[in-house]
Amino acid sequence: MTPYDDGHFRSTKKIVTTPRSWTGWLGTAIVAAVVGAGATWVFLPPLISSGMITLPVAMTTTTPVMDPIKQPLHLSMNDAIVTAVKQATPSVVGIINIQNSANGYVETGVGSGVIFDARGFIVTNYHVIQGATQVEIVLHNQSHVYASVVGYDAYTDLAVLKIPSSYITTKDVAQFGDSSTLQVGEPAIAIGNPAGLDFTDSVTVGVISATQRTMPVQDEATGQVIGQENVLQTDAAINPGNSGGPLLNIAGQVIGINSSKIVAKGFEGMGFSIPINEVRTITRQIMVSGQAQHPAIGIEGESLSAVPQQYQPDVPVKQGVWVFQVTGASAKKAGIRHGDVIVAVDGTPIMGITDLRSVLWQNKQPGQWVTVTWYRGQTKMQGKIQLGELPPLQSQGTTTGSNQNSSPYTFFGGVPFP
């Protein structure tokens, strides 16, 4: 005789039964299940620990049983964010804009920056250091050191600074990601100094809201719009002082440099970041020559999808760049006219003004010949155009960290010191 019930045991005690409804049997079954589960919860662990019951190998574990009520719940996403922040934070610096005034040197504002090269190179927004007489860097370990301005590019709102390499260790250098692979909805993490150094290395988390947005580039001092830029959109909070700081992916790689947000009434969570692939191109050019080179096709235009209905041309495509005005001699010679729609450069499809700028600025050089494809009405046309170059934009004025114009697009030069 064994202690196990084989399921066929029959009691010899006489049982008197009475008819019962199906609901009664259901109630009995539920009560029995609850009582059985409770008894198992109470008595099974002591029986296992005493050796009276041995679980099969597949059910055993070398780790102790954790009480789910007493143990904290750790989500893998939270762990990944914490790891990403720990990895990237040492590369984030504070940048103090110091200007000469009637009262001597004055600290006018603070922004953020990212160490991206062990030789001491730092990338930030141009408007963070615009008008500065001196630029002071505050490292993650709170060391202060003056930086030299290697160069800047007002068209993309980027600047490269340099400090002595002796202040930098390997862990202080950020890892750049690939902004071309980003997908809408994936996590985005912003690190910076909102409201100044009292809130240094503040972290905000959101998602990539869009990967292809065209936003105006604005002169911080005058409020004048000087061009347009392809940017990432995120709902991770970006505030004054975050400018120049990194936008990270979940792997802790820098995928953008935070630059602006919409602050108009009724808007929330609309921040913008310069894609890191463009940052990589511009910073490389600045490090070599002190400035960026921007090839130009010689037209002024707009994305066809953004053209009002009354101005829409009769073309067999819905995407492309609608030509408003032809300004370059080579483009005029090739035959491009007002109202044409550019759809490709060297065979690369052009969906809008953002694509056109990306193809030219990331892959082409001034003086290079390219084949441009466009529609004039229903007719598809092609022509060879020699690319020109945008002249360097010398913006004047100082950075105050405030924006006195009526544009809803605010580009933060820093937080004014009290």
Architecture of the largest domain, CATH level 2? Beta Barrel
Could you name the CATH topology of the largest domain? Thrombin, subunit H
Structural class: alpha+beta
| Uncertain runs | 1-23, 57-61, 395-418
Q: Compute the number of structural domains.
A: 3
Question: For the residues shown, what is the average pLDDT?
Answer: 80
- Shape summary: globular
- Assembly of the depicted chains: single chain
Question: SSE layout and pairings?
Answer:
Elements: H1 22-50, H2 76-88, E1 92-101, E2 104-117, E3 121-124, H3 126-129, E4 134-138, E5 144-153, E6 158-162, E7 187-192, E8 202-218, E9 225-234, E10 246-248, E11 254-262, E12 271-275, H4 276-289, E13 295-296, E14 299-303, E15 321-326, H5 329-334, E16 341-345, E17 348-349, H6 353-363, E18 369-376, E19 379-386, E20 388-389, E21 409-411
Describe this structure in words.
The protein has three domains: 22-59; 74-293 and 398-418, Beta Barrel (Thrombin, subunit H); 295-389, PDZ domain (Pdz3 Domain), CATH 2.30.42.10. Residues 1-23, 57-61 and 395-418 have low confidence and may be disordered. It has a six-stranded antiparallel β-barrel with strand order 1-2-3-6-5-4. A six-stranded antiparallel barrel has the order 7-8-9-12-11-10. Strands 14, 15, 16, 17, 18 and 19 form a six-stranded antiparallel beta sheet that branches. Strand 11 (254-262) and strand 12 (271-275) form a beta hairpin. It is built from six helices and 21 strands. It is α+β, with helices and mostly antiparallel strands and 418 residues long. The protein has helices spanning 22-50, 76-88, 126-129, 276-289, 329-334, 353-363; strands at 92-101, 104-117, 121-124, 134-138, 144-153, 158-162, 187-192, 202-218, 225-234, 246-248, 254-262, 271-275, 295-296, 299-303, 321-326, 341-345, 348-349, 369-376, 379-386, 388-389, 409-411.
